[in-house]
Design brief:
- The chain is an alpha/beta fold.
- The protein is built from 20 helices and eleven strands.
- The protein has helices at residues 21-29, 35-46, 53-60, 65-83, 122-134, 152-164, 184-191, 207-213, 222-226, 228-234, 251-269, 297-310, 324-331, 348-351, 371-380, 390-393, 398-405, 410-428, 432-448, 452-466, and strands at 86-96, 139-144, 166-167, 170-171, 174-178, 198-199, 240-243, 275-277, 315-318, 337-339, 384-386.
- Helix 6 runs parallel beside helix 7 and helix 18 (410-428) packs parallel to helix 20 (452-466).
- The chain binds iron/sulfur cluster.
- Iron/sulfur cluster (SF4) is lined by residues 99, 101, 103, 106, 108-109, 145-146, 219.
Amino acid sequence: MIYNPQKYAIADERMKPFIDENEIHDILNNTQPTKEQVREVIAKSLNKNRLSMHETAMLVNTTDPELIEEIKQGAKTLKEKVYGKRIVLFAPLYVGNYCTNNCKYCGFRTTNRKQVRTTLSDEQLIREVEALEENGQKRLILVYGEHPKYNAQFIADSVRTVYKVKKGNGEIRRVNINAAPMDIDDYKTVLEAGIGTYQIFQETYHKETYHSVHLAGKKADFDYRLTGLDRAQEAGIDDVGIGALFGLYDWRFELLSLIRHVNHFEACYNVGPHTISFPRIKDASEYDIDDKYKVSDEDFTKLVAILRLAVPYTGLILTAREPENIRREIMSFGVSQIDGGTKIEMGAYSKKEETQNLDKEQFKINDNRSLGEIIDELLENDYIPSFCTACYRTGRTGQHFMEFSVPGFIKKYCTPNAMLTLAEYMEDYATPEVKEKGEMVIKKNLDEMDNDKIKENLLERLNKVKNGERDLYF
Ligand code: SF4
């Protein structure tokens, strides 16, 4: 049976629910690719072309170990082509865990009486940001439960407070948001505070499953959440992040749904999401999910490689939910952003909390290394740790970002900017050992540079950083 996309087309699906489960099951059940077809799809992606849902399903339904290895190798090659060796670093900062929703996989769920509820005061927020800046962080994502306390004005005010905190050479240059869906006017309030990406995870795109795990509160409304980032785009937020919580339903269905979501944005707003996140369910206080759809490490690494090939220009975010070994393996497949030195208890950065208490946190994290340890490992593996925020601050976001990144120009900017932010980190925060490794990585990448003009400019700016200047970028 030939898959016919027109059969499922929705006229002008802006702010309309767009997931058709029959379409996704149809594709998954009717796609049995040959070896040649799988190799053609990988080759298409390596030419930096987006993959259709049908082509993505070909990779998803591939079970031949040899071909799966080719998929992973293809993802590695594509990552090098589009992103070079840089890995962008950020830290999550939980602001408040009051929540009126009842999500069965979350420690913050409203029925969890064991959860210690906290909202950071301005003073506490400032202390947290100072502690993060003292570690060398430059990019944060602020996280909030869904509660009337955390309305648009509260979120906007907390973003402004974060940007005002300066500690030595420390400053936060980009603040992303992970919060509940809003109405258009509320998004405008948050946008005016100068946010970067607005992230909303659908958690699961399978409606029946969605309703079985979201038992109460506004989050129980599947369609309002699904169209949440449409309203953000309508409000002028063209930098959005999507995601699914893998382990709630069949990962193959969720993966194709994420691609369908990307198609939706491109069709309606002429730009895909800035980032895709693919968290796997982890232990949490009062956690109540059976592991019927638990995703194995083998399938997880495969799905990330497929995502990389399917959406070459969308940032992929891998968090400290995953343990070191999984992070190490997956990073080579095309992850572009990771968190480092992560603590998710409210107030834990300034209190230097070392142990996790799930009755004060949303879920269990499995990579508790400090930012310095993560940077050390990145340099050991020839990556360039980056705190770059240049695109965001020069207006290269949304459609403009795509115009810039698609032809591959971004590599000409990403790598030099990554090296400039690394040089800052080495001057202000690195141990002598890490600084030495950083200098070797910078020298190696300078030697590999084929554009003398940029190389000359970069060398000049690296010297300025050595002499105390900060925040230089292309
Ligand atoms: S997942 Fe989010 S909305 Fe659901 S209970 Fe947790 S904090 Fe609240």
